[in-house]
Design goal:
Two copies of one chain form a homodimer. Chain A has 311 residues and is α/β, with parallel strands linked by helices. Helix content of chain A is 44%, strand content 18%.
Chain lengths: 311, 311
């Protein structure tokens, strides 16, 4: 099995390691750390054991794109979903006629930007439940979890999805196949859409601050209820106890700073549209009132404008 | 006329200058810059002319409190309204039996903390419409405006209020006497309560960012509508066109950063309770739903917790 991972940051490098362990041919396309990874491979500390590996090929440019007879079975896109980043263009050089496109990315409704541009290819959409971060050039720390939920997009499943899932499972992680990856995205959004932006607006607050400040759990729950309403209007009603279970689950974890909070504190671009803006846009299209989510979105937009104009 | 100004920051120093110009005896109680002000007085640049002056006495401690035969006619409190600052205790040393207490301070329902502790004294409540800031030790820049709105608290007016107003007017500023200072506070709150916290959460955004970011004017108007609803429930219905006039007035000004935004950017304590928290508390007491104001209050509280715990 031949795989190209486009955007081998912490997430991409980790899932590349899993596929490598399962025996796949793994090429990576990097934006930074190319020389280090070519020299030393990825060094990955993990509770799963030593996941360090050398990718079979390390690309630093589309000029390296393979000829079609060497085309990948899967091109796995692990690039952050950000305005101005054309993910379809990033995966295109690596596509052969039968290559399947795989997204391991956060957010709601993030598939069309790729699928609409590349209609000839099957699209597999995946959600990663993982704690992993880059701690230096070519160095990744895998802290916990790793489960992938995956399905064909927009719905159903496929032989290709099952085969890729089997490979991930052989590499040592839990895989959940789904017939409704959009529903799974809504279920994850129930947590991400409130917690991520709230954390940024609270200056990088962690989960304990976000639940134990007076009024804050009420606010989180109210935001979650708005996400539930949009999901239901989109045809994916979540279970009635979903909010309570998310709150309990969060309380059961140690204080935790989410990915958007970490991006914010490190002054990196944030996946605001993918995690929040797209939910607000769907709400507007479907006529669902989401005053709190809209307020979060507007506040983050104001921050952006203020940062850009620097008045 | 003998006046003691407690807390002669930019606002206190400015209004002391006005009273000095009108011929009053002006003592000031300072927390910082005592030596500089004793040596050189206040240096105040102002479009009103040269307002620089030497206070008649510069106090740096309550040990300097006058004997009762020298008691002030007015003790004017210009201290910021912050949790943990006991303004009643700060003015008490300067009170004789007939001294009237004057507050020149921002916010809603900020009088009871002083009035309830000092029931034997008349209380005059004032709102300052002014652009003034401290630019160095003993140095104040008066940029624009200066109007005071003043009345007896909780309602009505008084000979003492009229006399003090006449003195301010003689010193060169506009004075508006009111029979309902609480209504005037609500009218000012209509602007302050949304704009100040929104600006902080948008990382110090100015008025142009707060009106011209997509969605932001809608958000400001929605927050203002919540303030209107609380004011009305509190017995002070504001005119139906108040929101529109506030927005237009703000658009007519150049980009402007409000006092809470400046405090935030300078890492100084913010008057969150006075400007926002008290509005939310009154809403709760009167059963008015204010989801956006509550959300602003909770977000600011989360920031505070995060800053304090530093996890």
């Amino acid at each position: 099995m031949r795989v190209v991972i486009v955007g081998a940051g912490a997430i991409g490098a980790f899932y590349g390691a899993i596929l490598k362990r399962a025996g796949a041919w793994v090429e990576v396309v990097l934006r930074s750390d190319v020389e280090v990874v070519r020299d030393q491979g990825f060094v990955i500390d993990s509770p799963l054991g030593n996941l360090s590996y050398r990718p079979d090929v390390v690309h630093d440019s589309v000029d390296d794109a393979p000829t079609s007879d060497r085309a990948a079975d899967y091109v796995i896109c692990c690039v952050k979903v950000l305005p101005g980043i054309d993910r379809a263009a990033l995966v295109t050089p690596w596509l052969g006629p039968d290559t399947q496109i795989v997204l391991i990315e956060n957010g709601i409704n993030i598939e069309p930007a790729v699928a609409d541009a590349l209609t000839d290819h099957d699209l597999i959409s995946c959600l990663a439940f993982i704690g992993v971060s880059r701690i230096g050039p070519g160095r990744i720390e895998h802290k916990a979890f790793g489960r992938l939920t995956m399905g064909a997009w927009p719905a159903g499943n496929s032989v290709g999805c099952q085969a890729l899932g089997a490979l991930f499972a052989a590499g040592g992680i839990d895989v959940k196949q789904t017939e409704s990856v959009v529903r799974e995205r809504w279920a994850k959004s129930l947590w991400n859409t409130p917690f991520n932006p709230l954390s940024v607006l609270a200056d990088g607050a962690d989960t304990v601050t976000m639940l134990d400040t007076p009024g804050s759990e009420t606010l989180v729950r109210a935001c979650m209820a708005e996400v539930m309403a949009v999901a239901a209007a989109d045809g994916h009603a979540l279970p009635a106890d979903a909010i309570g279970r998310n709150i309990e689950g969060t309380r059961a974890m140690p204080a935790y700073r989410n990915s958007m909070a970490l991006d914010y504190l490190a002054n990196r671009p944030m996946e605001i549209a993918a995690i929040l803006g797209n939910v607000v846009a769907i709400a507007q299209r479907l006529g669902v009132d989401v005053p709190r989510l809209r307020m979060l979105d507007t506040l983050l937009a104001m921050r952006d404008v203020q940062a850009a104009c620097g008045r």
